[in-house]
Structure formats: C-alpha cells, structure tokens
Amino acid sequence: MVLLMLPHSVWADEPLVEQVRDAITRSVGYLAQAQQPDGSFLVLRCSDAALSKCGLDRSPASEMVVSSPATAVVLAGLWRVTDPRADGVNVKARNFLHEQMDQDGFFGNYRLRSPADGPMCPGEFRQLDLTALNRSVLEGFGELLPPIADQLSSYQTARGVFYPFAVPPSEVTAITSGGAAQKQFARQHGPLMRHYGPLMLELLGEVDPMVNADVFQYLVLHRLMPSALCQYLVRVATEEWDGGFSYFVDSPYAFTATFSQAYQHGAICLEPVKQRLQERLLRDQHEDGSWGTVVETAWAATSLINLGYEGPTLERAIQALLRQQQPDGSWERALWRKLRGHPFWFGSKEVSTGIVLETLDRFQTPKNSGRHSNAGGEATGAEANRTGVVRLLAAWSAEGASRACARSSKRPQIPSIDARPHRISTTVRFHQRPG
Q1: Contact 318, 344 (CB under 8 A)
Q2: Mean pLDDT for the chain?
Q3: DSSP strand pairing (64-66 vs 42-46)
Q4: Which 8-state DSSP code applies to residue 110?
C-alpha cells in the first residue's frame, strides 16, 4: 500500500493517545536497530502463509530479501516521527531506495539476498506498483525524481487499466501469444524467467486490483485522475471479496487502505462507494478489535481514518494493536505480500512494525500538521526542521555506486532536493474510456 495522507483528527481520550506515543517511541528504537548497513529493511521469504518456515533471521542461509517496497513501507511509518533517531534511519533508507531506482525513475522487482539466487539488477524488471509506492514515499519527503507520467500513460491499456509491469500493452499481447517475441523477452529477462517460470508470462497480462490502486493513488497525488481507472477501482470495491484477492496481496484491506488514501487525496470519483466501504470495514471487525493479523488490523484502521470515520471501532483497533507490541518495540511478523501460484510468502517484523507505526502516527497526530496539509505543497511541521538532512541525499554514496549491476552503467542523476514535492505535468493524456 501507499501512504502520504492527511492525518486523522484526535478524538480519543488522552490516556490512549499517550500510550500510542509511547508505542511509537519504542518502535523507532527497534527500527533503528533493525536497519541494515545499506539502509534497507529486510523481509523474509517463507514457504508457508503463517510465516513459520523462513529460516533463521540472521543466518547466511536464511531466505531474506533485500526489498525496496519493504524499505518504503518502513519509511512511510517514520514519515512524521520527530524522534531524532528517525532522521538517521530516514536518510539511509532513502539513499537505499535511490540505489534501487533506474535511470528513468522506475523500480524493479525484489533483489534477492540469498547467495544461491545470485545478484539481480534493480532495473531487471520494472514493476508499476512498486514504482508507485517507492516514488510516493520519496516524493513525500520533498525529493525531485525523474518524471514518469509520459511513460506511465504508454503502459495504460485501451480499457484504462494497467498491467503489473512496465511493458506496453501491444508488446504484452505479442509476448503472451508466444513466438519470437516471447523468446526474445525470455532472453532479456533470464533471471526472473528462471525464477518464476511460466507464471511471469501469466502476470504480464493480468489486471490486478492492488497494482491499479497503487498506480491510481500515485497519479492522484499528481492531480491526475483517469476516469476509466477510477471506475475500475469502484467496481472492485463494490464486489464481494474472497480468497486470492490479488496476485500480490491476499488481504483486501491492503486494497482499502490504498483506495481510501486516493479518496483522501481528492479522488472524488470514489465518493459513491465511500459509505459502503466504511460499513464493510465496520462489519468485518473481530470482537477483539482486530481484523485478523496485526498487518490487516493496521490496514483496516488506516482505511477508516482515511474515510473520515471517528468512533469506538477505531479506538478498539488501536488498543488491539497496542496489546500486540513486543517488548523490543516491534510487532510480530505477519503476511504482507505473496505471489499467487508461487510457493513464497513475504513478511517480517520490520515490515509489520512499519505498517503499524504509520497507523498509530495517523491516529495520534493532530489534523493539518502533515506535509501535505497546505494547498501549495510546501513543507510544514517536522519537515521544515529537516531541510538540512534532506539535502544530504543529493549525492550518491561511493559504496552504493560500487554495488550497481555491471550492465547498468547509467545511474539516475539526483537533483538537489528542496521541500516541495515534484509535480507531474497535468497535460499528459490518459485513457478516459470506461473499462
């Protein structure tokens, strides 16, 4: 899911807010310790949905993945935190994300850390939802990135939706039809084809709800709201949800969190389904205040905050999250992402903690103290005090450059960073025809 929404206005009693602040402080301490030397946060690749078969967390043989979206999720949780420890963590994490971005401003798939898997270049396979997520986080900190609107529009289908990867729809049709185009594609993306097999070809032409929600939310941040894409998301939100909701995420609450974020950012085309979505979330809450795992509970609570709900259901959800915080300040590992048809499930304490931290921070932060609280996009609050820290990201580290893949000689040039988020030109034309 993607972040950068206006915070929820505080309505809960002061003792609960104080508990939330204490939990946030302890979670920052955990994340500062858990961050890797390269600035990333790891996610475990497990062989079961319960995330019980993942190997030893710090063993060289463990199935650990260097994941740009996992790092972005944690960075999202730290977005408005004023704890001094968060500043150093943020700088390192954002440097890491920059290292994963290709020269055109896109992000690739996971870079596997296990020696048996070998290196995988960050630009090996561009994925649109990861690009939307990572860029939303970086731009939320006021960073100027290479514009991608022209390229994004070229990946939109005639129905107005997006496939998961940065491949033009006409090429997707040719590749999935077999023949020479498919063979050439397999040669160009050998490591991923060997890793995922025929499933990769199936994914190429899949219209996935989470991918499209992430892309739409990113476009809304840039004042672009393709009507056909919005109508597709409204249809998804009104359908009955069952298992296997998405190729990449099992829980529908990941979708509601991203969908509701777009609504909060001004996607008025989502208004017709707002009430129904809120009622469904309220109906699904368990007696203990949760919606299942800590990650699902955080996603659902964030959805309610985005939709403007204020009431006891939200307070019960926050209390449920607080009860599950571990002594070290973290939250237990819970399923975050998966790939349907492939025996891998992803999650980690770091990712769970980042997702819960974002929810808690939005619950306890007074309204209009966020970075996007004013119409002009100027930084406010804690961001104004971090300008010096932000500017540290204007250059690449020598260590990071040395880790780049040999064939990726061109690296993106990072411009000097100021406090204003970059805006995509609103003249880019997206398909408006309903799907």
Answers
A1: no
A2: 77
A3: antiparallel
A4: -
Picking from 6, 10, 30, the residue whose alpha carbon sits closest to that of residue 20 is 10
Q: Are 122 and 107 in contact (CB under 8 A)?
A: yes
Tokens 């009860």, residue located? 323
Closest by alpha carbon to 303, among 340, 343, 251, 349? Answer: 251
Distances (CA, A) of 93 to 37, 38, 68, 283: 10, 8, 9, 37
Q: Tell how many helices (H) and how many strands (E) occur in the chain.
A: 18, 5
- Per the model's pLDDT, the better-predicted residue between 365 and 418 turns out to be 365
d(CA 30, CA 28) in angstroms, rounded, equals: 5
pTM of this structure: 0.80
- Mapped onto helix, strand or coil, the DSSP state of residue 218 is helix
Alpha carbons 431 and 227: distance in angstroms, whole number: 8
Distance CA 233, CA 191 (A): 33
Residue found by looking up tokens 């860029």 in the block: 135
From the list 59, 64, 97, 40, the residue with the least C-alpha distance to 346 is 64
Q: How confident is the model at residue 297 (pLDDT cuts 50, 70, 90)?
A: very high
In the numeric block, the tokens 């060289």 are attached to: 60
In the three-class reduction of DSSP (H, G, I as helix; E, B as strand; rest coil), residue 46 is classed as strand
Query: Which residue type does 266 have?
Result: G
**By three-state DSSP, how is residue 112 classified?**
strand
Residues in the chain: 435
Residue 197, phi-psi category: left (phi > 0), alpha (psi -120 to 50), beta (remainder)? left
Q: Please name the residue that has the structure tokens 């097999």.
A: 197
Distance CA 327, CA 40 (A): 23
Residue-wise pLDDT tens digits, 212-269: 999 999 999 999 989 999 999 999 988 877 655 788 888 899 999 999 999 999 999 9
Cα 55 to chain centroid distance, Å, stands at 25
* Alpha carbon distance 321, 333 (integer Å): 13
Rounded CA-CA distance 93/419 in Å is 18
With cut-offs at 50, 70 and 90, classify the pLDDT of residue 373.
very low
- Collapsing DSSP states into helix, strand and coil, what is residue 44? strand
Average pLDDT over residues 324-339: 94
Burial 31-43 (b: 16+ CB within 10 A, else e): bbebbbebbbbbb
Nearest 10 degrees: CA dihedral of 207, 233, 356, 102? 50
DSSP string, 289-346: S-SSSHHHHHHHHHHHHHTT--SHHHHHHHHHHHHT--TTS-------EE-TTSS-EE
